Amino acid sequence: MLLNASGCLDALTAPEVARSLDGFVTKTITPEPRKGNPPVRIAETAAGMLNSIGLANPGRTCFLAETLPRLWELGVPLWVSVGGFSAADYAETCARLEGIEAVELNLSCPNVDEAPESAAAIVSACRAVTSLPLYAKLSPSTWDIAEAARAVEAAGADGLSLVNTLRGLALDERTLLPRLGRGTGGYSGPALKPVALAAVYACSAAVGIPIVGMGGVQSGLDALELIAAGASAVALGTILFSDPAAPARIRSELAVEAAARDLGHPLDARRAAHSSLQMGVS
């Protein structure tokens, strides 16, 4: 299954790109409208990009009344990314959602202040008010991401999204001042892939819930590697900015890479990277 990473695709502006995916993940929705962080919000780097959007969105009421009905018209399974600044914020939004494929709880945006509660406490609050599938989006900066995964699974998460962006900084070559208005931003792009692979690998060994792997995916082989690490679905992020046709290309490449390894389906490679450990090979 191919998805987009939240915030990397405007489905209403590029509906055909959204329809080329198996599901569309919305931008993160917060209870109140947010203008986002001051410009500059995006800076390219040598091996990716930094963004400091700051969860700009129309707010929960406008999203439910205006945006969501338009997204339904696309005919694509919808995942809604939910954010907030307290467990109650998350839970109140989840309670008002229905009929969608899943909820992705954005527990790790590096561009805004985080909720004071733990990720597990937020998941628990949301689980109490909705029966929709809940996917916890965790930060690769977490010291022990496998332990965080176990905690959110115990709290009621149905799946994980791994990984969110890493906090990074880019300086102007002439002034040596930060290139982003907020200073730091979320780093994404090809260099994030080894980080994502490590997180998916560790969490797949720690929990039994599905994982959406994301981070640095540019090719079908990248997607297959995330599946081998333990992902059951893959999300495309930064690549969609430079190559809107990437979903169809990567889907085709993924099939070719699987066939080259005598796999009947790409998901037959799931957790293949763990096999040497299971056999006791060092």
Range of helix content: 25-40%
Element pattern in H and E: EHEEEHEHEHEHEEEHEHEHHH
Provide the residue-averaged pLDDT. Answer: 95
Computed structural class? alpha/beta
* The CATH top-level class label: Alpha Beta
User: For the CA atoms, what is the radius of gyration?
Assistant: 18 Å
Strand order of the largest sheet: 1-12-11-8-7-6-5-2
Q: Going by CATH, what is the homologous superfamily? A: Aldolase class I
- The amount of beta strand, in percent, is 15-25%
Anisotropy-based shape:
globular
Uncertain stretches of 5 or more adjacent residues: none
User: Main beta sheet: strand number and arrangement?
Assistant: 8 strands, parallel
Report how far the terminal alpha carbons are from each other: 32 Å
CATH architecture verdict: Alpha-Beta Barrel
Tally of structural domains:
1
Per DSSP, the total helix count is 10
- CATH fold group: TIM Barrel
Give a count of the beta strands, DSSP E runs of length 2 or more.
12
What does this structure look like?
The protein has 282 residues and is α/β, with parallel strands linked by helices. The protein has one domain: Alpha-Beta Barrel (TIM Barrel), CATH 3.20.20.70. The protein is 33% helix and 17% strand. Strands 1-12-11-8-7-6-5-2 form an eight-stranded parallel β-sheet. A four-stranded antiparallel β-sheet has the order 3-4-10-9, with no helix packed on it. α5 links the parallel β7 and β8 (159-162). The protein is globular and about 50 Å long. The protein starts with a strand and ends with a helix. The mean pLDDT is 95.
